[in-house]
Amino acid sequence: MNGAGMNDATPPRPDVRKTYKLYVGGKFPRTESGRSYEPAGCAGVQVCRGSRKDLRDAVVAARKGLEDWSGRTGYNRGQILYRLAEMLETRKDALAAEIVAASRIGDEAAVREVEASVDLCCWWAGVPDKLNALLGSQNDVNGPFFVFSTVEPTGVIGVIAPESPSLLGLLALVLPLLAGGNAVVALVSEGRPLAGLAFGEVCASSDVPAGAVNLLSGLRSELSPQFASHRDVDGLLIAGAPDAAIGQAAADSVKRVRFAPLSQADWSDGARVRRLDWVEPFVECKTLWHPVAW
Amino acid sequence: MITPTDFRVPPVDAIALETRVAELATRSIKKDAKKKGLEMVVAMTDLTTLEGMDTPGKVKALCRKAWRPLAGHPELPSCAAVCVYPDLVGTAVESLRGSTVAVASVATAFPSGRAALDEKLADTRRAVAAGAGEIDMVIDRGAFLAGRYGQVFDEICRVKDACGEAHLKVILETGELRTYDNVRRACRIALLAGGDFLKTSTGKVTPASTMPVVMLMLEAVRDHYLETGRLVGVKAAGGIRAAKDALRYLVMVNETCGDHWLDARYFRFGASSLLNDVLMQWVRLRTGVYQRPEDFSKD
Amino acid sequence: MTQHREREKSTAPPRPALSFGQKWRYAPAPEATDFVAIAPRHELFIAGDWSAPRSGRYFPTIEPATETPLSEVALGDEHDVDRAVAAARAALPAWSALPAEHRARYLYRIARVLLERAREFAVLETRDGGKPIRESRDVDVPLAAQHFFHHAGWADKLELAFAGRAVQPVGVVGQVIPWNFPLLMAAWKLAPALACGNTVVLKPAETTPLTALRLCEIFRDAELPPGVVNVVTGDGSTGAALVRHLGVDKVAFTGSTAVGKSIQTALAGSGKGLTLELGGKAAHVVFEDAAIDGAVEGVVRGIFFNQGHVCCAGSRLLVQEPIAELFVEKLRHRIERIRVGDPLDKNTDLGAINSKEQLARITALVTRGVDEGGTLVQSSCALPNKGFWFPPSFFTGVSQTDSVVREEIFGPVLTIQTFRTPDEAVEKANNTSYGLSAGIWTDKGARILWMAARLKAGVVWNNTFNRFDPGAPFGGFKESGFGREGGRQGLAAYAKCTGGLVQG
After folding, report:
1. Do residues C238 and C77 touch, judged by C-beta distance below 8 A?
2. Does A19 map to a domain?
3. Are strands C172-176 and C199-203 parallel, antiparallel or unpaired?
4. Which residues of C touch B11 (CB under 8 A)?
5. Residues 6 or more apart from C97 whose CB is under 8 A from it?
6. How confident is the model at residue C165 (pLDDT cuts 50, 70, 90)?
7. Chain centroid to CA A199: how far?
8. What is the pLDDT of residues C325-367, one digit of tens each?
9. Domains of chain C as residue ranges with CATH
10. C-beta of residue A273 within 8 angstroms of C-beta of residue A122
11. Whole-angstrom Cα distance, residue B265 to residue B40?
């Protein structure tokens, strides 16, 4: 960074620093509130302190994105998730640096986290065109009817990512939802938001339709009640132990709510995160009946 | 009349139709309702013999049975008609003189309908001339299944003309039309062509009358009545042997078409062995005692 | 015919009209009840035995068709719930450790005995709940038995149902069931729970406890181990005590959306499992190319089955404009044919409204519908003097803003609206916070699949309606609840995958 070995006469080149903004509806807006905060994990960096209204806008964007994303074929969704893996891989160093900057963990561990994220992405990329084979059914019934059950996305799902691992944790929550055809509004790690926000750049360059993934940064304590009470959010997938306040607020619109009480190490445990029961609560089983006759 | 070229009908959902029929088949008809029902069945029966071995003797016996179904019970109505081949119409007319029983004759190259139109018309005129008050014609199923609906329509119109004053029953032979959609379309053609009755079957093809098919016909005549004001009858013919089944048909009539059709003018059973079972049940209701089949005359 | 010609001559010919019921009336055909003795008092069923409520309090259960009391039933309170949960907890280790095929064997036994005693259960169900004997006999009881039979076969095949995932029982399950299908709902809930190795405390509905209690006799005869199923009767407070009990690992509830939300609120943060099967306001979409008489039957089945006390009832008819007038006319005729009256009469199609409260609710909503400007059409059928009754009814001239279109009436009341295009039908159908079921009538296969993919509903009946089977997953989208009942998917509610996400 400091240009070692260059002619002393030339002043060091001031680097161009990235402004970390929200990712909403395929665009990178600043928070409407104009507020920012300095995340606990990254001194000297200011990120958007997303507000209730940012969440509102993100949900509107997600509702639009849902229409596009859920209307794609499973094959197409799979390809796009694989494209995400490709883009993650390309940006491995940058993302690792962002994890390091925020987490102060070693470079090697950060690279491993990005690699695990890429691997997880590849795993989920193979799911969308098999969802109905895995979760659907043709049902034998006692009568002259052809009956089958398909799964379709629940809708707009709110995600609250774990503090750490900030990138892998976010992806472990977001990927199954996307594989299921849902649109996501995610609150990235509060203290270590950089890699999570950078994921927006990965999405923007991966053919993920605008609005399918929306990323907010901000204070978990401020935004989680808003996620829970927003009536147009159909489900919540939240890192951490069950939270009564969130569950209570979610009940008014009968949201599907799941908590992921994983330890730091659990997130990189394939046996924990590569499972269909991460997508199952966020797809709706629809049973179709039709008579069989000539 | 301009020949319609479009005999489109609403599609039929087989399972919905069969479900409704199965529901109605669970109706429990007891006591007075049963007695009344059985008497209606007797009055609606076209006592039928359509065999190669039919003789004047056989037809005379059948006529007596139709006139007075049960010796010693003049309170029981006569059957609606006796149904025979054209050559035996004279015998039947003779035997039934003075009764209310009509003489029905099959015609139009019954049962296959495979003859030239002029032969079918001649067949019809002969039967009418011999005194038949009702003509049971068969439609040309070959033409129907080949999609020549106009031909089927024209033929019914021509036969209707040949009938003169005689009532025309149009046998669709639903067992050969196979699908409910075909039956529904055939109903439409026969109704537009001026048939006085829709009749299920010749009795020579299996299945003959079935409840769903008759339900479909009832819906067709009901809708036709509401559309045009013209009442057309339905005749369930063949395969109905038990009083219990006949009552189930009546329930369909009662709950689909209603009172107008609970009348021998608009609903008939074409049957032979059915009558004795109905009589047996009727006597059982009166006496409370189960009956022995041998005690009822077999004609 | 002559009459007809004369009519044609007159300047304003009367429209042809059908006439019904003047020529042939059915004699009463009451189902025999003398073989179904009802004890004057019913206790709680805890740990395999009958047990008096600690409070010593009982409440009457009445026959809604006559308003006569049938029996008095124990009013369980939190202490009784506590005892029942303890019994279920005590029975859990042995029951869940049984060889799976042994668990299956008990369920098979229950299924077979239920069929043996089918008529008895049908009569009891009809007397206690008011539904026609034709339905309890032909639908509720056989389906209940089928549920036990179906799930018996799953008990020893769970590793096939959850391929690649280790599952174990959730534990003690609290189940609260509604009054519209008292026996069927009990079977629907108990069978999968038991198959997966759970033990259960079941709370039947206040107005219809008798068949669930009689089912306990079958459990005893089948030698189901004591405590595996416990039944605590009572009112809303009993149910509330059960779902909030700390010893319950999972709650399954079928009932109103309002109560469902309160249960979800109560369980928030507990990490307990919860499945909710709540209300509905299903759209029944009829296209102009539909098999019209079949569709009329489907619509009738959709809204008048079980007096419309069906969460998935097709209560909002959306009919395409070109056939709207004809369809409404056919429906008008058809509802006159619905036989309303004594539920025990084998020819009755529409029985008694389940309770005075429910009748008041239906009446109030219908009154509001009229006040808001809807046109009410009702069958002219005579209603009995005693008991709770409501005639088959429908509203025309209503729109999406009307209360009768938006609110679940849970009675024999249909609303009729029209639409022009498939996308308009989808928009109207989905314009509700419910999402339990939907119906489509069209002769066009591609359109069915297009529509079905867009309707936000857990069950879509195409060219049929209100069909149920233990093999077919059932449950709602949106505020109609979550979780499925029936089929492989339904097992998930009663089997815990180790290391999975936690419900909140």
Report:
1. yes
2. no
3. parallel
4. 289-291, 443
5. none
6. confident
7. 9
8. 999 999 999 999 999 999 999 999 999 999 999 999 999 999 9
9. 41-278+480-497 (3.40.605.10), 283-469 (3.40.309.10)
10. no
11. 11
Instruction: Give me the interface pTM, i.e. the ipTM.
Output: 0.95
Q: Is the peptide bond before A165 cis (omega within 30 degrees of 0)?
A: yes
Decide if A6 is inside a domain: no
Residue A8 in domain: no
A8, burial (CB in 10 Å: exposed 0-12, middle 13-18, buried 19+) = exposed
CB neighbour list of residue C212: distance below 8 Å, 6 or more residues apart: C177, C182, C183, C186, C202, C204, C231, C233
What is the CB neighbour count within 10 angstroms for residue A126?
Answer: 12
CB atoms within 10 A of CB C384: 13
Give dist(CA B217, CA B211) in Å, integer: 10
For residues A219 and C205, what is the distance between their CA atoms, to the nearest angstrom? Answer: 45
Size of the A and B interface in Cβ pairs below 8 Å: 14
Interface of C with A in 464-503 (CB under 8 A): 464, 467, 469, 471-475, 477-482, 484, 487-489, 492, 497, 499-503
The candidate with the shortest Cα–Cα distance to C319, out of C257, C398, C241, is C398
Structural domains of chain B in order of their starting residue, each with its CATH number = 14-286 (3.20.20.70)
Q: Residue C497 catalytic? A: no
Considering only CA atoms, give the Rg of chain A: 20
Q: Of C63, C277, C408, C485, which residue is the catalytic one?
A: C277
Q: pLDDT tens for residues A84-106?
A: 999 999 999 999 999 988 776 77
To 5 degrees, how large is the angle CA C78–CA C83–CA C89? 120
CATH code for the domain in which residue A91 is found: 3.40.605.10
Q: Where are the beta strands (DSSP E) in C352-420?
A: 375-378, 393-396, 413-419
* pTM score over 0.90: yes
Predicted confidence (pLDDT) per residue in B228-240, tens digit: 999 999 999 999 9
The domain in which residue A138 lies consists of 36-291
Q: How far is B274 from chain C (nearest CA, A)?
A: 21
Q: What percent of chain B has pLDDT over 90?
A: 96
Sign of CA dihedral C300, C304, C310, C311: positive
Phi-psi region of C460 (alpha: psi -120 to 50; beta: other; left: phi over 0): beta
pLDDT tens per residue, range C270-308: 999 999 999 999 999 999 999 999 999 999 999 999 999
The tally of domains found in chain A comes to: 1
Contact assignment for C264 to A149 by CB distance below 8 Å = no
Peptide bond into A176 cis (omega under 30): no
Residue C15 C-beta-side C-alpha neighbours within 13 Å: 6
Residue A135 lies in a domain: yes
Q: How confident is the model at residue C13 (pLDDT cuts 50, 70, 90)?
A: low
Q: Between the CA of residue B138 and those of B105, B197, C499, what are the distances in Å? A: 11, 12, 72
Residues of B serving a catalytic function are 136, 199, 235
Instruction: Report the gap between the CA of C298 and the closest CA in chain B (Å).
Output: 7
Exposure b/e, C18-45, CB count within 10 A at least 16 = b: bebeebbebeebebeeeebebeeebbbb
d(CA C312, CA C275): 16
Reduced 3-state DSSP string for chain A: CCCCCCCCCCCCCCCCCCCCCCEECCECCCCCCCCEECCCCCCCCCEECCCHHHHHHHHHHHHHHHHHHHHCCHHHHHHHHHHHHHHHHHCHHHHHHHHHHHHCCCHHHHHHHHHHHHHHHHHHHCCHHHHHHHHCEEECCCCCEEEEEEEEECCEEEEECCCCCHHHHHHHHHHHHHHCCCEEEEECCCCCCHHHHHHHHHHHCCCCCECCEEEECCCHHHHHHHHHHCCCCCEEEEECCCCHHHHHHHHCCCCEEEEECCCCCHHHCHHHHCCHHHCHHHEEEEEEEEECCC
